[in-house]
């Protein structure tokens, strides 16, 4: 790869004197080493807090070790995959770090997935075990026999909250709110039982190298098939080191950083910039289980002098406009980072006005662990751009003819750096499609169209892929079309994203009927059964025909252009 220098890469002129051009991606040999460093260095500090319950680094050490020993006692070997399907609760870091300490590869799974979505992910990854919240176990029951999963560990929401709060929370969730549908999974083990069993077992630390897989992070594909990005220990450690270097000037007077963790830990953004970054700094993560409950969220914000708040546009906007937001003390806030979707200028301005803290917009993907670039470098923050590349990271603009574009010309953003994935799990064909090699090295093709300014700031102007971005989550039209096409009465379907002030984009489908009795309600009900909520179409339009090429391919672009024309009127 081309050596990084100010002469070669103009963005380096913006670097502050205390931010290095390059980081050491081998600072720790594995995430296990990073974890052990934190456990040994900060044992008395609080690592996580959730629903008023603290979990110290010492307790995280103890419980994750017990869980690792339990997993090993099941006969699970280094490299075996384990799925984790939970919201932000204390069980998550215990299970995650326990699995990593056992040498397993984690398959992070959205708790809101339907059985259909779960089945693909579990079969594709070959997961042999799962840790799942009881609320979602009914979906697992429907498909577990079709997977390689032999070990099911079920936890309830309040399991780590201690007596009597554990009993109260679990009873309210199950019997009052009725949030745990009945299910039966043979030989399931409770999370607390797993910890008790593991306590009596011997833990054996595996020898894990930096280039071995740590996570399989699933992301959509242009074919509609979700693909697993293979992220190594080195990939993630590199991004943690980049994050630490980038934020150092902003946190220089912060001894023990407190992170607000409202983004889900199963998402690679929170995984890296919250969970793993806190290991590096000995910081505390305030886990927000349900960030949509803004009243409860604000109650949590009021309890802590937090310093770091990663989020996304919709989350910040919701808080800004909440009538109780004035009760929150933002005086300790040093870093607000935005990713996952475009940051709107008005939201950035209102957030800074409210908190006194500028929003640092960045850019990344599941395939890049995730962060590639960021703003607020040497005091400069250009809202509307994705900033400049992080240390040891290179971005370039590629033309369609696979030559490099000059400054100011639009093309596909390509990235290189130690945070870029190995490839897609069991998908060598898909891996080949997203990498480009030339004399300067191996480049990952992001699928986003961007422009580099003369002084090195990058801006996204469009997406090469048809991906729809809903509140920070990727939605792929082919998957939606595949589901809707199976709804009885549908002849043809097309799916596009429509701009939306609240979520960034929303999903719209255009349907040609085979059955004249087909209704919008029937389509919505079918989608609800087969797609997680953020993927479900918010708009359904019936048509007698869809625009197509001369060979019969549906033209999504034409439909998008129609919608944009409507918005301009």
Please sum up the structure shown.
By secondary structure, this protein is of the alpha/beta class.
Secondary-structure class: alpha/beta
User: What's the CATH topology label of the domain at 55-208?
Assistant: Rossmann fold
> Helical element count?
16
CATH C-level label of the domain at 55-208: Alpha Beta
End-to-end span in angstroms? 48 Å
Share in helix? 25-40%
How is this structure best described in words?
The chain has 16 helices and 26 strands. The chain is an alpha/beta fold and 569 residues long. Among the domains are: 10-21 and 380-463, Luciferase, Domain 3 (Luciferase, domain 3, Roll); 55-208, 3-Layer(aba) Sandwich (Rossmann fold), CATH 3.40.50; 468-568, 2-Layer Sandwich (GMP Synthetase, Chain A, domain 3). The strands form 6 sheets. A 7-stranded mixed β-sheet has the order 7-6-5-3-4-8-9, sandwiched between helices.
């Amino acid at each position: 790869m081309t050596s990084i220098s100010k002469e070669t890469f103009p963005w380096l002129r913006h670097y502050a004197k205390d931010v290095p051009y390059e980081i050491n991606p081998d600072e720790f040999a594995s995430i296990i080493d990073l974890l052990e460093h934190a456990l040994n260095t900060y044992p008395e500090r609080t690592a996580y807090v959730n629903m008023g319950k603290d979990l110290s680094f010492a307790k995280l050490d103890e419980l994750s070790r017990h869980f690792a020993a339990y997993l090993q006692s099941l006969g699970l070997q280094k490299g075996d995959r384990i799925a984790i399907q939970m919201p932000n609760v204390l069980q998550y870091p215990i299970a995650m770090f326990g699995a990593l300490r056992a040498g397993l590869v984690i398959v992070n799974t959205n708790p809101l997935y339907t059985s259909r979505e779960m089945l693909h992910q579990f079969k594709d990854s070959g997961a042999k075990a799962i840790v799942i919240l009881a609320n979602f176990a009914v979906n697992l029951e429907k498909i577990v026999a079709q997977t390689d999963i032999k070990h099911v560990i079920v936890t309830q929401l309040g399991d780590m909250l201690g007596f009597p709060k554990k009993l109260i929370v679990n009873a309210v969730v199950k019997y009052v709110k009725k949030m745990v549908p009945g299910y039966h999974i043979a030989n399931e083990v409770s999370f607390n039982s797993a910890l008790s069993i593991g306590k009596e077992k011997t833990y054996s630390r595996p020898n894990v190298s930096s280039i071995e897989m740590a996570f399989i992070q699933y992301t959509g594909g242009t074919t509609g098939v979700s693909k697993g990005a293979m992220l190594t220990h080195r990939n993630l450690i590199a991004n943690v080191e980049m994050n630490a270097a980038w934020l150092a000037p902003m946190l220089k007077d912060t001894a023990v950083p407190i992170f607000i963790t409202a983004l889900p830990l199963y998402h690679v953004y929170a995984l890296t910039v919250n969970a793993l970054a806190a290991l590096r700094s000995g910081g505390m993560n305030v886990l927000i289980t349900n960030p949509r409950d803004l009243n409860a969220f604000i109650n949590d914000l009021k309890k802590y002098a937090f310093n770091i708040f990663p989020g996304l546009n919709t989350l910040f906007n919701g808080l800004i406009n909440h009538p109780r937001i004035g009760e929150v003390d933002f005086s300790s806030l040093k870093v607000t980072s935005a990713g996952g979707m475009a940051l709107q200028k008005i939201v950035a301005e209102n957030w800074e006005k409210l908190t006194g803290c500028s929003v640092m917009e960045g850019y990344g993907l599941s395939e890049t662990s995730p962060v590639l670039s960021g703003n607020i470098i040497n005091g400069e923050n250009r809202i509307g751009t994705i900033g400049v590349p992080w240390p040891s990271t290179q971005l370039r603009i590629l033309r369609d003819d696979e030559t490099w574009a000059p400054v100011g010309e639009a093309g596909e953003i390509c990235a290189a750096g130690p945070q870029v994935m190995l490839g897609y799990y069991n998908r060598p064909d898909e891996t080949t499609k997203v990498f480009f090699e030339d004399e300067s090295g191996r480049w990952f093709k992001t699928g986003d169209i961007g422009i580099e300014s003369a002084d090195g700031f990058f801006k996204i102007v469009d997406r090469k892929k048809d991906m729809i971005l809903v509140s920070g989550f990727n939605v792929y039209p082919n998957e939606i079309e595949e589901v809707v096409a199976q709804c009885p009465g549908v002849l043809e379907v097309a799916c596009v994203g429509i701009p939306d002030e609240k979520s960034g984009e929303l999903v719209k489908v255009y349907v040609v009927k085979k059955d004249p009795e087909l209704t919008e309600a029937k389509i919505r009900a079918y989608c609800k059964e087969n797609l997680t909520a953020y993927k479900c179409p918010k708009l359904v339009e019936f048509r007698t025909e869809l625009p197509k090429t001369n060979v019969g391919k549906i033209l999504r672009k034409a439909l998008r252009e129609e919608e944009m024309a409507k918005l301009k009127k």
